[in-house]
Amino acid sequence: MRIGVLASVAHRTPPFHYGPWELVASTLAEGFVARGHDVTLFATADSWTSGTLCGTAPHGYEEDPDVDAGVWSPLHVATAFEHADRLDVLANHFDFLPLTYSRLVRTPVVTTIHGFSSPRIVPVFQAYADIAHYVAISAADRHPDLPYAATIHHGIDTAAFTFQADPGEHLLFLGRIHPDKGTHLAVEVARRTGVPLVIAGIVHDEEYFLGAVQPHVDGRLVRYVGSVGPQERDALLGGALGLLHLVEFAEPFGLSVVEALATGTPVIARPRGSLPELVRHGRTGFLVDDVDGAVAAVNELTTLDRADCRADAVERFDQQRMVDAYLDLFHRVVAEHRIR
How much of the chain, in percent, has pLDDT values that exceed 90? Predict the structure, then answer.
């Protein structure tokens, strides 16, 4: 099958550090190539793939201030659709913008909805619902006004994460430093339990970081290590007593959650959005309503079997399962398209 994978140009694919959409697009593209398919990855020009790279923007617009998102995003999408007649299916991981091109080509477009940044974008998805094939990344993120072709949880290369049976003595926050992600709540848990906290991730809200997080960073109880690459992330996750994921919004999917489980590290999370689908309460972590619940859960982390966490991640969130699910969907979509 000739498959096009349309990645975002916010970051390189795969990302150097942060870039969840780009990471998923890369994982799928490499998985499709490994299965013998002819894959074209539409991504930034500095991206990498074992398939064919069709690069547009020189760098990600979140990584290079000289790259204008308003200029390169439409150019990037247009390039992909100009190649559409050479493809059997185009896998869209670039949100709603590519939908506006989809009636101009005969190639079916499968769009993975990586969450809704605002209710204002929903009308675009509704406008193309008659020809679109939407994939939800969790059952919780399915919008009631949209039709879906499938719900497919993200998958990761679990082999790239090292199982650690014996963790260190720190808690970990890993992700965007933003009020939605509840970094301040993780700090509060550390303060109340006395268990050291390591914070890793990019700052997405500077004012929030300076006011609610940085004043508590003392290098002892709370450390901030910035954005981390794959090797350091693996070490931090595996060495953690537990991952704190006390989000303040309905999380569409938490990649850091399944990455933590892949190293054997249990997760303490709030039951918002997809989290009840990812964390098995009392087995791979704890679902708590507030900081009080998180504080109590910290004391129970050592009662969980870290081997269970690893096994659950491999069984439910390995990349091979995700690749299989997408290929099954592509075959069905292409067959239906040919009949029509």
Answer: 95
